[in-house]
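Sorry to interrupt, but I need a hand with the structure work. Could you write out one complete protein record for me, on any chain you like? Could you add the entry underneath, on a fresh line?
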Amino acid sequence: MTTTTTLPIRLLDALGIALPIVQAPMAAVSTPALAAAVCEGGALGSLGLGNMSAPAARDAIRALRARTARPFNVNLFCHRPALADPAREAAWLARLAPEFARFGAAPPRALREIYTSFVADDAMLAMLLEERPPVVSFTFGLPSAESIAALRAAGIVLLATATTPAEARMSAAAGIDAVVAQGFEAGGHRGVFDPDARDECLGTLALTRQLVRELPIPVIAAGGVMDGAGIAACLRLGASAAQLGTAFIACPESDADASFRAALLGPAAARTVMTRALSGRPARGIANQLTALGADADERAIPDYPIAYDATKALVAAAKARRVGGYGVHLVGQGAPLARALAASDLVAALRAEVEEALAR
């Protein structure tokens, strides 16, 4: 594939891939089968490990390696560890209690910090240094300088998500090899370093172009990109590659359940909302009865991430047990109406053809 600049070639060589396409590492949706199919197609497949323990993450890496010998990416959450607040958490559960009652269920007695941040997970770092995945990416912030140095010394390429030029500059200064420019259109959680700071809500194109002009390291554009035309537009702005997440959710290899697939491929996909109420951090997903529960919530009343997510997951399970729709955590971007239900290998092939056609015009 030809490109309009030399930057993509440099980054693709560093990542060991043929196509300027990264499959986003969507925790709870990405699977070894999905990532492997993407890798085999010449792009960079990814696993989301942020919701896993070190042993589970090791199993996922080895399952992926059993399916492909090509380079892949694994992603870690670097959020500020949660501060428990029993009073706030009890009040949040009381707010949700009527919804649990609708399904004949009781809310949890207490909420837990269900995910351990990579910044406090020595076991995860040790596992990564033993397994040595080719690429490791970070979201919600950066790990310690010592962790970055250890991973770099192990020969691992490092990526980090940035939603602002300031976050991107911090990433470059910390020794990150390439930055993922996450626009406000993107699905899933915002990669903001500080969820309590004012969000400038920069779109993918504006953010990508700013970072390309300012940074000494390559930029990967992310947010709202669903097809080859979108990828080509990002490359023409100077991005070295594009990262796509929502585009891969409808693939049979993803772990999305039937209700998620139906919502993604139906009219509901046309309306997404950004909400903090699902997990305690801003996240974009399909608007439904679950997202509506937090529409009028005071953000100060929402427990810290990921403590709030514990309540949401319990409510989702209660609704699913009664086969009630509209309560799924369906995290997608604004490009969701463009989703295609293709096998991952077929989608990567289609994206390649579309990029080549778009760049040839």
